[in-house]
Design a protein that fits this description.
By secondary structure, the chain is an alpha+beta fold. The protein is built from twelve helices and 17 strands. The chain has a single domain, classed as Chorismate synthase, AroC fold. Pathway: Metabolic intermediate biosynthesis; chorismate biosynthesis; chorismate from D-erythrose 4-phosphate and phosphoenolpyruvate: step 7/7.
């Protein structure tokens, strides 16, 4: 069983990730993980916190000589801002309450979390609910990506919408690979320029913007996932993983919501067959998944992120203690974090796919798994 856990608060000493069940023999180094952490911190529209932090991982266990050992992998990412919050976020009795939060922010976990966990200071909720936690997920996802790359799987992630600006054409896989050259991780140059302008306009107005990112995965065999139980359907698992990212409010696979407006004759992908290649589809409206199972085409997944709810011109709220009408609390925040969310989304998709590979092929060492995957591809191509 492959799983990971994260721990840590936004302004605590560090974020911690523990990965369990990753096979032995996977090439892994710190630079590979740090490159993805840097991408998560990048993207036009990020806030002041990213100027403070420079996320770098420390591998505490599970890796030796640049290869995974098959034992639990422990990762640590230090929070540089901890130095400024040491007395406030101290785990010891008597921690200072200088930055107490009693004005819940609409759209955040502040109010429901305060009610659920009976907190007098809503900071006890927002510190863990913060998207800062996603740095720990990206670290775990980097290991999953390293595993998938060894199996011939490629991921390309790019932004297709920020606020009112949307890419108006389909972006091929190879073009999407170069999206990180854009300040907003958008592969379309014209749309990228308009997205920058939209972010600047929102910043001037003290507002925020959301958007949509797309993840493409090439090299998956047909047969990952299953139709036999609701919780084994790969599309459902991908949706859950992406929806667990803070501020993600919608997920679609392939043409997704657009299919609802089409007739059945226009919505599905006709099937062909070539000797030596096997079955294929003439189109990919399904986004590489049919019946909860990969069908051998490129996987296409999109996620919609709402505008960040921390606003410099805050919305109305009610004080947690006095019940008086107030304006919501203001924490340091981004104007737009869609590019960063895309990196987190890539990590989560990679994690789900790594789990699906191990469920289907098993194995404790990379070479064992690669042999089984090759045998399966031979079977698929020679049906």
């Amino acid at each position: 069983m492959l799983r990971f856990l994260t721990a840590g608060e936004s302004h605590g000493p560090s974020l911690v990730t523990i990965v369990e069940g990753m096979p032995a023999g996977i090439p892994l180094n710190i630079e590979f993980i740090n490159a993805r952490l840097a991408r998560r911190q990048g993207g036009y529209g990020r806030g002041e916190r990213m100027a403070i932090e420079k996320d770098e991982v420390e591998i505490l266990s599970g890796v030796r000589g640049g290869f995974t050992l098959g034992s639990p992998i422990a990762l640590r990412i230090a929070n540089r801002d901890w130095a400024n919050w040491r007395e406030i976020m101290s785990p010891a009795p008597g921690a200072k309450e200088d930055r107490r939060v009693t004005r819940p922010r609409p759209g955040h976990a502040d109010l429901p979390g305060g009610i659920k966990y009976a907190q007098g200071d809503l900071r006890n909720v927002l510190e863990r609910a913060s998207a800062r936690e996603t740095a720990a997920r990206v670290a775990a996802g980097a290991i999953a990506i390293a595993f998938l790359e060894c199996l011939g799987v490629e991921l390309a992630t790019h932004v297709v919408r920020i606020g009112p600006v949307q890419v108006k054409r389909e972006i091929p896989f190879d073009e999407a690979l170069g999206a990180t050259a854009s300040p907003v991780y958008c592969a379309d140059e014209e749309a990228s320029r308009s997205m920058l302008e939209a972010i600047d306009e929102a910043r001037e107005k003290g507002d925020t913007l959301g958007g949509i990112f797309e993840i493409l995965v090439r090299g998956l065999p047909p047969g990952l996932g299953s139709h036999v139980h609701w919780d084994r359907r790969l599309d459902g698992r991908l949706a859950q993983a992406l929806m667990s990212i803070p501020a993600i409010k919608g997920v679609e696979i392939g043409e997704g919501f657009a299919l609802a407006a089409k007739r059945g004759s226009e919505a599905h992908d006709e099937i062909g067959f070539t000797p030596g290649k096997g079955f294929f589809h003439y189109s990919n409206r399904a986004g590489g998944l049919e019946g909860g199972i990969t069908n051998g085409e490129i996987l296409i997944v999109r996620a919609a992120m709402k505008p960040i709810p921390t606003l410099r011109q805050p919305l109305r709220s009610v004080d947690w203690i006095t019940k008086e009408e107030v304006v919501a609390a203001v924490e340091r925040s981004d104007v737009c974090a869609v590019p960063a969310a895309a990196v987190v989304g890539e990590a989560m998709v990679a994690w789900v796919l790594a789990c699906a590979y191990l469920e289907k092929f098993g194995g404790d060492h990379l070479e064992e798994i690669k042999k089984r995957v090759k045998e399966y591809w031979d079977y698929v191509r020679n049906l």
